[in-house]
Amino acid sequence: MNTETTKNKEKLNEKDEYRLTFSYSQEQVNKFAEVTGDNNPLHLDEEYAATTMFKRPIMHGFLGGSVFSKIFGTLFPGEGTIYMNQTMNFMRPMFVDTEYEAVMTITEITREKNRAKVQTQVIDKTTGKVTISGEATVINANRL
């Protein structure tokens, strides 16, 4: 059994934290637009975006926040997690080919229900500013 598998069997506690560095390409933004049908030119058209307050295309907010689903379902708590709810406040725009860090911090655990509340944030690695802030509730019978 590898270390990651062993680690994933340990029970999590309040204040446990998980961090993941990530970025998205314009191709991924285009695919997200295709899947969702959100073809707002602010996300897809450089010339149009140049006329806006952002001066360049911004990513869809939900694409930026979709990293939370990846983390909960595969990394922290991981396999078997049921994602119950999520609030997201979009604090600042996110841009393609920019490094961000998702930070997940357990704020409350209800062991008898295998449930946790988790603070969720996305932070711009260059500026240190929060781009997405929120809270999720997850269930995981193996780790909570």
Structure, briefly:
By secondary structure, the chain is α+β, with helices and mostly antiparallel strands.
**Molecular shape:** elongated
- Give the uncertain stretches in residue-range form: 1-6
Strand content: 25-35%
Specify the structural class.
alpha+beta
Q: How do the strands of the widest beta sheet line up side by side? A: 1-3-4-5-2
CATH class membership: Alpha Beta
CATH superfamily: Hotdog Thioesterase
Look at the structure and give the mean pLDDT: 94
Which features does this protein show?
144 residues; five-stranded antiparallel beta sheet; 6 helices; alpha+beta; elongated; 26% helix; 5 strands; Thiol Ester Dehydrase, Chain A; disordered N terminus
Characterise the protein shown here:
The two termini are 21 Å apart. The protein has a five-stranded antiparallel beta sheet. The longest helix is centred in the first third of the chain and has 11 residues, at 26-36. The protein has helices spanning 3-7, 26-36, 41-44, 46-50, 61-65, 67-74; strands at 17-22, 82-90, 100-110, 115-124, 130-139. The model is unreliable at 1-6 (pLDDT under 50). The chain has a single domain (11-139), classed as Thiol Ester Dehydrase, Chain A. The radius of gyration is 17 Å and the shape is elongated. It is an alpha+beta fold and 144 residues long. It is built from six helices and five strands.
